[in-house]
Amino acid sequence: MLNVLRPLTWWFAVIGSAIALAVGVMTTVSVVGRAFFKSPIQGDIELTQLGIALSISLCIPWCQLRGANIIVDFFTQKLAPKKIGFLDAIGSAMVALMCLLLAWRTGVGAVAVREAQESSMILGLPMWWAYASLAPGLALGGVVALVQAWMRLKNQMLVDADNDADGKPS
Questions:
Q1: CA distances for 49 relative to 80, 121, 123, 137, 143, angstroms
Q2: What is the average per-residue pLDDT within 161-168?
Q3: How many C-beta atoms lie closer than 10 Å to residue 9's C-beta?
């Protein structure tokens, strides 16, 4: 499963990074245009908001796969590896639930915003595009976290099967 997820999440992250880079270049051009030519890029704020939100949602799966999210282990650093593994599995399951819930609600929101025909203030972009573009990254992040939770729990079951009742290797 990871053989499929790894390249997919990598491409999502590359696309998300390219979008963030494009937003950075656009912002620079807009600021320079505003400062020197009194001519900023129209709708730069709208494009920045949309671009950065999309970039973040596309990078979430890679971040989750690599374990690059913030972990506060102050209370767990002295626990046994088995207990830490179990807590990591629960954490991954919670991230999966959150991401999948956000993907679902973002999709529902996209449909509602499309039906309402909402558009951005300056550029008049259909707002449902913004909502719909966030769902794939969030969904993939949820799938990655779900697979990680399953793999961690499976690993815990294998560790339990290899140990006797005292927790010592048999």
A1: 43, 13, 13, 16, 25
A2: 54
A3: 25
